[in-house]
Every structure is written in C-alpha cells, then in structure tokens.
Amino acid sequence: MLAAILWGGAAHATGANSRNDARLEPLFQQLKNAKDPAVAKLLEAQIWHIWTWTDIEDVNLLMRMGIGAMEREDYEAALLHFGEMVRIAPDFAEGWNKRATVYYLQGNYTASVIDIERVLEIEPKHFGALAGLGLIYLQLDRKKPALRAFQKALEIHPNMPNARDAVKDLQRAVEGERT
C-alpha cells in the first residue's frame, strides 16, 4: 500500500511525453510553495493526472489493464502490459514508473531501480519515483542513499508525509551511524 501511495495512483496528458506539458511547471511551483496539505494533495492529484494518461489510446488501454492487474496482484500480467507500454511509448515516464512499481512489489529491486532511472531521465521532478527509490534503498538497508532520495522528493513535494517521516527517521539513523 505504501508503494501505491508514494508512486502514485491513476488519473490526461498530451503525447507520450508529459515533461513538455506546459501545465506541469506552474503546478510544481505551486506544490513546492503550498502551505496547506489539502491544497498540496489537490496539486499532486493534478500532476498525477497529467503524468498518467496520454493521447495515445493504445497506451491508455495498456495503462488501465496494467493497473487492473496490479490491483488484482497479478504482477506477471501487469509486467506484460507495462512492458508493452514502454515499448510503444519509450518516452512516457509513467509507463516506466508503473513497471518499476511492479518490480518493487515483486522484490526485484535491481530492475525497479533501472526503470526509476529511466523515469527520472524523462521526468526529473517525478517525486513518486524518487520516493520509490527511497523505499528500495530502505529495503536494501542503504540508509544514506534512501535519505538522499527522500530529500530530493521533498524538494519537489514538501508535503509528502511519508517521505517527511522517512527523512526524520533516516536522519537520526545516519547521525547515529556517525557517532
């Protein structure tokens, strides 16, 4: 469940590459400056909406099918759908992100990190992928890289409560390792 919260849910962007979507930068700026967590949550939902869908109907169909398979915990089917999605639309960051999420859920952290790196090449402000990277490093007991990943996510989205809590815990743990 935590992975779904951090990596994001579902919700229309133009084209398979939302990075150039003119709606994103003002939303990121508002998200960064939002003082009210409820406002931040609305802005986050708008960003996920832009990230998650394209005007390529085949990709949207694969997204729906992949999300459905994830919800049923049919990870093999989800990987097939998301794998086809990244083949059809290699510049669609959310296809890679969803596949990274499935790999994470399967415990295949190496494959998940590879896909997250691709997400961040396409969309450097993908706070969900950064938080997912933090989760992977936590699973691997790599506290310093986990801390950096969560901190980067918070630079973009300061109101991510799970990431904020993780940073507090990790800062204490990392400082404890130094003493």
UniProtKB/TrEMBL annotation:
Repeat as UniProt keyword = yes
User: Domain of life here?
Assistant: Bacteria
Residues in TPR repeats: 59-92, 93-126, 127-160
The record's keywords, sorted A to Z, are: Repeat, TPR repeat
Keyword match 4Fe-4S = no
Query: What SUPFAM superfamilies does the record tag this protein with?
Result: TPR-like (SSF48452)
Query: InterPro entries of this UniProt entry?
Result: SGT, TPR-like_helical_dom_sf, TPR_rpt
GO terms of molecular function: molecular adaptor activity
Coiled-coil regions in this chain? none
Where is it found, in Gene Ontology cellular component terms? membrane; TRC complex
Biological process according to GO: post-translational protein targeting to endoplasmic reticulum membrane
- What PANTHER family does this protein map onto? LD24721P (PTHR45831)
This protein is called what? Uncharacterized protein
